[in-house]
Every structure is written in C-alpha cells, then in structure tokens.
Specification:
This protein has helices spanning about 25-80, 85-105, 110-120, 130-150, 165-190, 200-220, 225-235, 240-260, and strands at about 1-5, 10-15, 20-25. A three-stranded antiparallel sheet has the order 1-2-3, with no helix packed on it. The N and C termini lie far apart (about 60 Å). Helix content is about 70%, strand content about 5%.
Length: about 270
C-alpha cells in the first residue's frame, strides 16, 4: 500500500489514496485521520441499526397490540366468552406488557397520535416520526390480515371501528379519551420526577378504563393505526376520519394542558 522514497530534505512516504508523496512527519496525522474516519463510519452504522431496531420494535409492538386487542373482539363475537370486560382487560394487559418489554427500545408508542405528540415536544426527532408512523400502520395492517386469515368464520368487519350513532359524538369521545391517555403518558413516561416503574401500570389502567366506559360510546380507538389497519383489510372506511382526527386532536390538545398544569412551576 505504501512505499518509501527519499528527498534531499526529508523522508517521504507515498500515499496511494492521495497519489502523492507525503512527508514522514505527517504520517501520524494521516493515521489519526483514518482512525477518525473509521470511528465515524462505525458511529453512523450504530445510529442506523439503533434506529432500525426502534422502528422494527414499533412495527412488532403495534402488530401485537392489534392482533391481541382486535383478536379479543373477534373471539368475543364468535364465542361470546370474553365479554366487554374481558376485551377491555385484553387491551390494557397487552399495552402494559409492551410498555415493559419494548419501552426502553423505542418508547413503546405503538400509536401515531402519541408519536406525533411526543415529536412536537422534542421527544422524537422529525426524521424518525414518519418512519414510526409508517411502521405502526404496517404492523396494524399485518395484524388485521393475520386475524382475517386465521379466524375465517367471523368477518374482520367486527374489528373495524365504526361510529356509534352520530359520528360527531364519537369524535368528541375519541378526543376526550385520547386526551386522558396522553395526559397519563406524558405525566408518567416523560416526567423525570415520575416513578418509572409505574409507567406500564398507569398506561394499562387508563387504557382499560377508557375501553370499559368508552367502548360502547365510540368503539374506543385512541389510536389511528389501530383503526386504519382493520379498515384497510376489510375495505370498510365508514367513519374512519373520526378515528384519525379524534386521537390526533386529543393528543395535541393535551400538550397545552400538560405545560400549564404539570410543568408550570418547573
């Protein structure tokens, strides 16, 4: 790679990368620069694979959420064994499991509305936001497709969120319950003073509580991906706008209140 030459003034080394002779006194600096470039490449690869792991985790987490949660609805429709209480418990328990399992990897957003809200306060970079949302939608759609293939004697339409009665009333319910969910998430997961070990229990509790009382009112989505995935597989887009606008607006509305009530004196 290198060959030595001699000039009247100093010893030189021929650098093939530059195609010229370089003074021997500069060899150490050249080696340092090469080492720095190698470290930079390793750092870029590390960041790339870290982001890949985070986004892959969001895809997997949303798949699990929809497969278990919407699967509970389909099983209840077919066998009548879970009851409304059981379906709400399934949603809450699977969210708690995901928070404790993948929360330290990707944050366990598993919800485009939550990702958008966290990005707006700097907890998620704008570069990662669209990747997170795409992975969440893909995971939810794949879960709905799997349910549709596995459970053939019940239509996947039963897992599709459809407004109960007046769509505007369902929209208001979705805004309120997503506001409640986001408040709990921000107060427990993003506040350094909050006990971190309680995040999963708190989020699980509020998700199950919302599902219990709001399920009959709006279907209790709180999550655009959770509604969009089954709608894409069933090709049923009746009232889908409610379950996209409601959670997004509810999560963003929560940002103003969290600053006023929780961070005002900090």
């Amino acid at each position: 790679m290198k060959k030595q030459g001699r000039t009247p003034s100093s010893v030189t080394i021929y650098d093939l990368e530059k195609g010229q002779y370089v003074a021997a006194t500069n060899v150490a600096s050249l080696q340092t620069k090469k080492a720095d470039r190698k470290m930079l490449r390793l750092l870029i690869l590390k960041i790339f694979f870290y982001r890949l792991q985070s986004t892959k985790t969001e895809l997997m987490g949303t798949f699990i959420l929809v497969f278990a949660g919407r699967g509970g609805i389909v099983v209840e429709e077919r066998d009548k064994v879970l009851t409304h209480l059981g379906v709400a418990a399934v949603f809450g328990l699977v969210i708690m499991a995901l928070v404790y399992t993948v929360g330290h990897i990707s944050g366990a957003h598993i919800n485009p509305a939550i990702s958008l809200a966290l990005s707006s306060v700097g907890k998620l970079s704008l570069q990662e936001l669209p990747i997170y949302i795409i992975c969440q939608i893909v995971g939810a759609t794949a879960a709905a497709a799997a349910l549709n293939l596995i459970i053939t004697n019940v239509s996947i339409n039963v897992a599709v969120n459809v407004p109960v009665g007046n769509p505007w009333a369902s929209l208001v319910v979705e805004i309120i319950i997503t506001f409640i969910l986001s408040t709990v998430i921000f107060a427990t997961a993003t506040d350094p003073k909050a006990p971190g070990e309680m995040v999963g229990i708190a989020v699980c509790g509020v998700a199950a509580c919302n599902a219990l009382f709001a399920g009959p009112l709006s279907g209790c989505s709180m999550n655009p991906a959770r509604s969009l995935g089954p709608a894409l597989i069933a090709l049923n887009f009746n009232g889908l706008w409610v379950y996209i606008l409601g959670p997004v607006f509810g999560a963003l509305c929560e940002l103003g209140s969290i600053r006023v009530f929780l961070y005002k004196n900090r």
